[in-house]
Amino acid sequence: WEIFRMSLIDMRVGYILSFVVASVFLLLAGVYLHGTSDKIDGAEFARSLAKIYTDSIGYWMYFVFMVAAFTAMYSTVYAVIDGFSRAFAAPASTIFPKIRAKWRMKLYWIFVLFTAAFAFLILVALKGKNPVALVLDVALLSLCIAPLYYGLNYYCVTRLIKDERFRPKTSARLVALAGIVVVFLATL
Description:
globular, mainly alpha
């Protein structure tokens, strides 16, 4: 029970910090882009964004920004490949208990290879020329996979958890079902 409680605290702190960081970026964009003719699109996305920082802070910020942008993209790719793979391997091995012991890690690596291969195909198709299109394609892929993941997660949490204390209450279940419907409709 204590681990569950700490996990909830960790999740809530993560959501709050993500909201704060997103709000800061939104405010920065509002302050620095309002009333300007600067466009941020296409292959020049990173340079355009870096220009905003260098114009307001100094040229030295360009290198800091590029290292931060690379780190953000690398960590995002790593998190997506690892996260999706774990997110699908765990429910699959939970739903099908006979494969749990033997196939759980193999499923994880199968999903890692599939996700990496799909990402490689997107890069080849775009020829690495348009990072904005790449981000949009990955977001679209995530959106298309989300209803399946949400459904598997809902099934595992509502059907396979034996201890009633750890199961979501009726109100949380209704919100989850509404979320699944909304994500499914958005995907369509």
